[in-house]
Amino acid sequence: MSLLLRNALLLDVTTGEYAEGDLRCADGRVAETGPGLSAPDGTRVLDLAGAHVVPGLIDAHVHVTASTANLGTLGSMSPSYAAAHSARIMGGMLDRGFTTVRDASGADFGLADAQEEGLIRGPRLLFCGKGLSQTGGHADFRGRGRHLKDEHPCCAGVGRVADGVDAVRAAARDELRKGAHHIKVMASGGVASPTDRIDSTQYSMDELRAIVGEAEAANRYVAAHAYTARAVNRALEAGVRSIEHGNLIDDTSVELFLRHDAYLVPTLVTYWALKEEGMEFGLPESSWRKVDEVLEAGLVALERAARGGVRLAYGSDLLGGMHRHQNHEFRLRAEVQRPIDVLRAATTGAADLVGMSGEIGTLAVGAHADLLVLDGDPLTDIGVLADAKHLRHVVQAGAIVGGQAGATVQSL
């Protein structure tokens, strides 16, 4: 199946400039771009009448299994029930323009295979399996009065507990065995976990380095959950590729990001959403009270990182019924960044982070034909990306899979 987009404004995200012309997709890839392209027999043709076309969006921090904000309950859900929720959540992400997502713990090879085979609608799914947590860490959901733990090997919990260098090596190897694209490690406390402090550091340096070593041996990388400068800096020194959240970084953190060529993945929208409606969607009150500690600091951290030249990727980290706010992250970041820079984080930046530069996040010939047709210019109004009503078409692998429609379509 071939698809030809005529009379479009095609965005080169790297330069931030539009080119007038056509774009043809074939066999799931961008086949050619330029003025006056011809359409082979059987090609579906859309006359876009000057609409803006950008690459499909990439969210580098999602939890597609998080049907509730009470993450501790996920591990005891029936796998089939969790999968049904995940299919619904992934379909919503695709409808919002996200054609690739990186799951930051919870999703597994089954969901990735189901999406790839067309069994469920959704973005291309890059998964890490279960995140690694120390005892009492961010993925240990036991309350203070509970002793025994069940790792729920059959179910879609977001984490597994492993302590000591040998144990974390084995855990990392096990997630890699199951096909993980990256390894997630909990390097500090967090909001959703019941017994840790946000300002704690988690895992020893020896444990962190062992996890990084296993990922690198498999030509994969480590993403680290971390909030405070102390936790972030330890993780960067240990060799992680991306810091998730990073709300409380300092100037030393910026220097370490640059030195280690690492990424920051802010997730501002989740704190906004958790504060507004987290308890409505299952967030325990004890966790809700932690939100204030990181909410206000997020924009400050993003501005510090952007000013310092840190490489950035787009992330949302939403849970439960709050997934619908995924695109609001564009508005939040635009308070301190130019629209083109926010869009780069959700395209070329995220693509580089996940090791798929030139494959996704671009309209270049040879890339996956994932793109959005918009009824406005996101570089002058970020609301064009923040509100799905502006999304005319979602194209994934060269096929129209969503959007509001509104272009003239014909077949040759």
From TrEMBL:
GO molecular-function terms, A-Z: hydrolase activity, acting on carbon-nitrogen (but not peptide) bonds
Family annotation (SUPFAM superfamilies): Composite domain of metallo-dependent hydrolases (SSF51338), Metallo-dependent hydrolases (SSF51556)
CDD domains in UniProt: Met_dep_hydrolase_A
Domain Amidohydrolase-related: 53-401
Transmembrane segments: none
InterPro entries (alphabetical): Amidohydro-rel, Metal-dep_hydrolase_composite, Metal_Hydrolase, Metallo-dep_Hydrolase, OTAase-like
Protein name: Imidazolonepropionase
Organism: Nonomuraea solani
